[in-house]
Amino acid sequence: ALFLVGCPVAGLELRNISKSFGDQPVLRDLSLQVPDGSFTILLGPSGCGKSTLLRIIAGLDSQTAGQVCIDGTVVDHLPPAERDIAMVFQQYALYPHLSVRENLAFALTIRRTPRRVIDERIAEAAQLLDIEPLLDRKPKDLSGGQRQRVAMGRAIVRKPKLFLFDEPLSNLDAQLRTTMRIELKKLQQRLQATMIYVTHDQVEAMTLGDRIVVIEGGRIRQADEPHRTYAAPAEPSVASLVGTPPMNRWEGALMTEGGETVFRSHDLTLPMPARLIPPDSTQNSAVTLGIRPEDIQLRETQTALPLSGLVELVEDLGADLLLHCRAGERRLVVRTARRADRVQGQTMTLFFPVDKLHLFIDHRRFDPPTTTPT
Fold this sequence. Notes:
elongated; 5-stranded antiparallel β-sheet; alpha+beta; 35% strand; 19 strands
């Protein structure tokens, strides 16, 4: 058995981390616990602060406030080299004049690791990553995927407590990204190592992580298992980040009409089932109503709300279709199986299953639309 499978695992705790550049806040009072041996994804749009947070964990940047704890020890005073962390960047950062073997050995050599140990670790990492035939090549002779494997191998041979990945697959083509995602997931399962992975790609987040931490505006919006993040998003920002295409959403208000609670958004009015209505909601509560494209049905089902929509455009994805529809002033996307009949330009009845609706409450007061709903 590979001794690398016995890599030490470490828990990470972030306590009230804040970071500002001048008077511009980037991270705002962010706290997080990463369990030992987990594969945690930091997911968010560009500029949300996720890479800054990773650099703070690594010690490459310092936080304005808060503490970083690794394996129960506060490491804020430690430089990157003493935090026992390995980081894999978007750029491979391989030494072009060194062979693959020499790149793998470099960090161990400068630490004066015995040659026998270096050779053992290189051999085992090369076997694990399937790069044994590449050990005597230079980086210029490797493909993008092979270079990324070498970058990962350079991290693995150090046997760190914590692996940090900063969008390592973003420079690869789509097919190779898929292959490398699978290999990276297998690698984490073999090593049982604690890994933190930054990405803006929700497909990577859903397929790789044991846990997804959604960051937006410098704050954690949700930290949950992938299926929970998808099925029960905590906020509209989470719903828009996770899922392709993103969730259909409409801002509006909960109102009472004829003793019944309805959702109203300008020219759209839908009755709301009691189970969706939060107990702390009030008359004219501002809300966002959402439903995922794949949950909208084209055939009537029990407990489904009907809505008439004009199909303006059809995207053919091969296995299924995306119908871009307009319902009054609202636009929405429907994901459906292939159909033999032509639907573009037709008006169709769309059905919203009640158990697939999502209602996000905003407790600010909402001024109801003056337009008479249709």
